[in-house]
Write a structure and sequence with these properties.
Order of helices and strands: EEEEEEEEEEE
Helix content: under 10%
Low-confidence stretches: none
Shape: globular
């Protein structure tokens, strides 16, 4: 059984940076994506970034304008989301998730396993 635990959230001022981490336990399989999603109060959960754990290929939401970077450390079984130039509209609960290659890497429906989330709050 795959388990995901996020950490690294917090409160920062606009323009600041944070790095979120997700530790993966259990068997994930090589044909998987690891994705980062976020959900703000009153809004739907949306895909932020994803990485193909076999090829290292990445995908990002167009709205991020290159501010976020997803990466992995396979040996440590960690996935990271480096966030820079944070804006108040980035405020949300951020979730790590694991899904199979069969779907769009930025769609919620592609993912079957989710972490509990870590809160990111950006003040103006």
């Amino acid at each position: 059984q795959v388990q995901l635990v996020e950490s690294g959230g917090g409160s920062v001022q606009a323009g600041g940076s944070l790095r979120l981490s997700c530790v993966v336990s259990g068997f994930t399989g090589s044909r998987s994506y690891m994705g980062w999603f976020r959900q703000a109060p009153g809004r739907e959960r949306e895909g932020v970034a994803a990485i193909n754990i076999l090829t290292g290929g990445t995908a990002y939401a167009n709205s991020l304008q290159g501010r976020f970077t997803v990466s992995q450390d396979s040996a440590k079984r960690m996935v990271y989301l480096q966030m820079t130039n944070l804006k108040p509209e980035d405020t949300a609960m951020y979730y790590c998730a694991r899904g199979l290659w069969s779907g769009d890497p930025l769609r919620v429906s592609t993912y079957s396993t989710w972490g509990q989330g870590t809160q990111v709050t950006v003040s103006a």
